[in-house]
Amino acid sequence: GKGVLVGQNPKWCLLNILFLECKERIWPGGMEIHTNEKEVTEKEVTLHLLPGEQVLCEASTVLKYVQEDSSQHGVYGRLVCTDFKIAFLGDDESALDNDETQFKNKVIGENDITLHCVDQIYGVFDEKKKTLFGQLKKYPEKLIIHCKDLRVFQFCLRYTKEEEVKRIVSGIIHHTQAPKLLKRLFLFSYATAAENNTVTDPKNHTVMFDSLKDWCWELERTKGNMKYKAVSVNEGYEVCERLPAYFVIPTPLPEENVQRFQGHGIPIWCWSCHNGSALLKMSALPKEQDDGILQIQKSFLDRIYKTIHRPPYEIVKTEDLSSNFLSLQEIQTAYSKFKQLFLIDNSTEFWDTDIKWFSLLESSSWLDIIRRCLKKAIEITECMEAQNMNVLLLEENASDLCCLISSLVQLMMDPHCRTRIGFQSLIQKEWVMGGHCFLDRCNHLRQNDKEEVPVFLLFLDCVWQLVHQHPPAFEFTETYLTVLSDSLYIPIFSTFFFNSPHQKDTNMGREGQETQSKPLNLLTVWDWSVQFEPKAQTLLKNPLYVEKPKLDKGQRKGMRFKHQRQLSLPLTQSKSSPKRGFFREETDHLIKNLLGKRISKLINSSDELQDNFREFYDSWHSKPTDYHGLLLPHIEGPEIKVWAQRYLRWIPEAQILGGGRVATMSKLLEMMEEVQSLQEKIDERHHSQQAPQAEAPCLLRNSARLSSLFPFALLQRHSSKPVLPTSGWKALGDEDDLAKQEDEFVDLGDV
């Protein structure tokens, strides 16, 4: 572990060494100085700027600490802040840029941080770490940046000119933490400047659900067009700015009812099951104190139910997610604790917390929240699949937990949603067009920290649990989910930077009357060619995905019956359905619930609901998995795991060299190559075109050289020597043996 001053002028190096010796800052093992004998002047590294990107401030002679192999060394360079990102440019580019890295983002470099990705900024004053915000009276000697993608950057400013330190620190704090206006986001600058250079992926067939045709197609695909209809009553957002321009409602429901309370109290269709049951969502009516208005709302809801609760809408179960499920505050509090486990400043901190890892993990409650979300989705799946019930999800605005649960249900029940195009279309339908407030929930404008809640990240974590447990059922990989979570903070895509379709459409115009007629062309995140080269994109596609076999007409009839029998899991004895409408005794209570008053369970007792769930759950897991049918996750304690690739990818000590799932995947892909080669020989296709899944193995060969957190973790170029503090282990071992150790640490590097 030797400190490295790379590519510096010899005079600078000498001054630095003298200064460090005076301050007793020499790193263990001495200091290694690399200079270029042929060229002693500093090498200027070019800053790559996107169209419309402008440099705001910069500082030179900044030392970036690089955490690697449980020791730190540093690289000098420039720290630059633009209106898009914070970038560090090392004086020796080869020291920072790993040529062996095969998975590079074309927009964000290894040492780039988008302004929206900055979570917290800390300064070190006389070895004390403090949070930085607002105007500073004193400037730190060390800058630590915690990112929302869980990267940690540390910059030493001790050798930087005082004026440059003030400028760069003040600039970073202001441009990452000060409240912003929507029109001042880099998204609009980029869209204006890059309009003529925008290239879209012709293979991207994601359904955007921004037209009536898209909704009609989805109705036809799910066979929901017999009971539901797509409407354009909100075209131009004249009825409600919260709803999309087009959506689907039950066929018997008059369109004029949508206008009554601006879309509140209206059951909106999400998805239809093969057996005719459907998943719907509804935003609750606003709370009112006036008795007259309450009576009007009650009368309105009563008419809605009389319209809906008749054949073929006999059986409806209401799930009130606002009062009988998670709160947004619970989610935010849990994630705030959870993420601290991975924002590690140095190796010592990592090993200090390692001894209490499981207790800290449990106390965060993040995994328990994931379990509760998956369990709720299974309960709704059981109602639709086993009991042929329609399910109505209820939430205040139907834009947070409704998006989460409805998406998970469709992912479990609809194999189309487990393809990449299907999954992207699902997010467009339920999240983007469903009105999830990405701008507020991700706090992109820094206007209200209380509104920031990682609901979409919670959804991706739930999806990862399914992908991890049933890999052959998904066309996409966990790497795809990880880069999708990273894309939340890249402000060149419009997908995750608006609160509603109305907000996006009204802000796509240009500033200035002379150009206002032509709207801006905003990129969508689903065009992966913007971020990754074709070779890197192969890591987003699962080579082990089991595609649905294509059947001829003679086979389809019999297979359809068998497929539906397998989906319909039998229960011991199902209750007879009510003969008319919804449960008559509960109608008044349901109306009160929709008006914002908490009540007890609407249907069944909790014991009966639990029994039905357990029988359904156990019955499914006792049978072979049909990867193109119903798919349920395991939710028992040890089955809910930490999404290691996303949360641990920047921590060298957490990596397994040549091990982990990447090693298993590499062996499987090698076997696939052998099978394919043998098949080609059998079929005498010596020069046949390779199948798409044959492209991926080349990236995973020599798995012994890869990390378990591939493709994000850099390849380790030094031997790994984890250092464990004895202080945390004394209670577990023999104190007499531990007392014999002369040093504070036990070096296990040679074990």
UniProtKB/TrEMBL annotation:
Location of the Myotubularin phosphatase domain: 209-647
Name of one Pfam family that matches: 3-PAP
CDD domains hit by this protein: PTP-MTMR12
InterPro entries: MTMR12-like_C, MTMR12_PTP, Myotubularin, Myotubularin-like_Pase_dom, PH-like_dom_sf, Prot-tyrosine_phosphatase-like
Entries under Gene3D superfamilies matching the protein: Pleckstrin-homology domain (PH domain)/Phosphotyrosine-binding domain (PTB)
Subunit: Heterodimer with lipid phosphatase MTM1. Heterodimer with lipid phosphatase MTMR2.
This protein's name: Myotubularin-related protein 12
